[in-house]
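Q: Could you fold this chain for me?
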Amino acid sequence: MKAAKKSDSCSASITIGATEDVDSLIASLETEDVMVVKNIDDINIQIKSENLSDLRARLNTALRSLQAASEALIEVDRSE
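A: Sure. Below is the predicted structure, expressed as structure tokens.
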């Protein structure tokens, strides 16, 4: 396998098991430049970029959005 260069096009995917809050997690990515595929058992988030540095930044942003949404949902459940 050839080593990736910083200037190579690249992609990453995140798969999350479906829960009752899956629609809220998907909504948290609405403003991100990602493609979300909702399946019966999980969601798949696909991130593409023209270079490795940009992919890392996009992946980091998507993960932070998911984390913030998850923490907000936990707090809502805790207050009920």
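A (continued): The domain at 10-79 is CATH 3.30.310.50 (TATA-Binding Protein).
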